[in-house]
Amino acid sequence: MTAAHPHDTELADRARRVIPGGVNSGQRSIPGLADLVITAADGARFTDSTGREYVDYHAAFGPPLLGHNDPDVTAAVAAAGRTLDLCGVGVTPGEIDLAEQLCELVPSLEQVLLTSTGSEATFHALRVARAATGRRLVVKFQGCYHGWHDSVSLNVISAPDRVGRHDPISTGILPEVLDATLVLPFNDIEAVRAAFTEHGADIAAVIVEPVPHNVGCLLPDTGFLQALRDETSRHGSVLVFDEVITGFRHALGGWQQLSGITPDLTTLGKAIANGYPVGALGGRADLMQLFSTTPGAPAFFAGTYNGHPAVVAAALATLRKLRTEPVHEHVFALGDRIRAGLTDVFAELNLPAVVTGYGSVFVSYLMSGPVPRTYADLLRNDVGMFIGYRRRLAEHGVFELPLNLKRSHVSYAHTADDADRLVEATRTAVRDTLAA
Ligand code: PMP
């Protein structure tokens, strides 16, 4: 970056010598910010190794709904550690309590299993769907991300010439695995019906982010999720809502509570434990009973760290706070304030923009026209501008991830002043980018 934004190149160089690319997950090394070394996080902020503080709207891709290092969550984790750690046999009271609350809150959950990540949850959802139906194919939608495993590692953010055909995000995936995934356009009921007409008897599952937030925010058209429910039911396929982002963040019962549409299986993660590594897969008891956690059942399910007491304590403390404090009210109000402020800024600067999102999630696409409904609409986003002004935002101590189509998040720790600071910094960053 510029001299105005020094980075700790020495530490980052050490990282690059022993960690491929210097980071531990794809999309953590950002062009222009490759030397970023994070040393502290608290509330709505994180600090880098040069001492620079950022108001954080990236929020680690979404988990810390309460803010970083929430004192109640941190205290619960410490307390759990004083009495218990991982034993790997039987169950703990915390796991029972958490499962009961999840089943009470999320409409589709009759039973639930914990994993350590969202990817493991979606992996097992597809495995059990195949086990239950004896079928081969899964359907996903262009723009949705469901984790790193082979069946779903395709067609997330695709270049224009890759939309509508297989676009794996990794090499090393067997072609027959890719061939077993059908990719359809989100919000296209006719495409879904056509796929079922052609392949219905072979479709094990349809997996969908009910709101595809991995490309910012595409809201489902009225009737789209219902059409998925109708088609999967009619053809005996399993409907999976991947609520890893929407679960808890948009409502305690997830998007299924808000939409009134109940899938067969649901995957959860991220906001459930406010940043501790957790995922969950739940749904219809007859499907969940197929997992090998039930003696003699056929679908293998395991994980050394599943239900780790520290993670369960974090989840229980998070839930307690979500259930007793006006967290959603707060983050929804700030989300609205930010969307309104940003809309004004882009209008003032005469820059075509669509500011959208839901509740605590927001994104500003740099494009004209109506609110996007499907991935193809997002190809109009001005990528250079989208990334360019976000890089400048970082120089103003405000962090929205400078990568194409990434959403941003408000937490319970953000204040109205933080929101206004984001809006003001955006005004300056966009103006400077336009002038550059
Ligand atoms: N599903 C969705 C909707 C996600 O956004 C993510 C993570 N971004 C995953 C699944 C995978 O979760 P994890 O990174 O915890 O494996």
TrEMBL record:
Keyword match Ion transport: no
UniProt keyword Mitochondrion, yes or no: no
Region (Disordered): 1-23
Gene source species: Actinocatenispora thailandica
Gene Ontology molecular-function annotations: pyridoxal phosphate binding; transaminase activity
Cofactors named for this entry: pyridoxal 5'-phosphate
The protein's name in its UniProt record: Glutamate-1-semialdehyde 2,1-aminomutase
UniProt keyword annotations, A-Z: Pyridoxal phosphate
Pfam families recorded: Aminotran_3
UniProt biased composition (Basic and acidic residues): 1-16
PANTHER family per the UniProt record, alphabetical: GLUTAMATE-1-SEMIALDEHYDE 2,1-AMINOMUTASE (PTHR43713), GLUTAMATE-1-SEMIALDEHYDE 2,1-AMINOMUTASE 1, CHLOROPLASTIC-RELATED (PTHR43713:SF3)
The family this protein is said to belong to: Belongs to the class-III pyridoxal-phosphate-dependent aminotransferase family.
Lineage: Bacteria, Bacillati, Actinomycetota, Actinomycetes, Micromonosporales
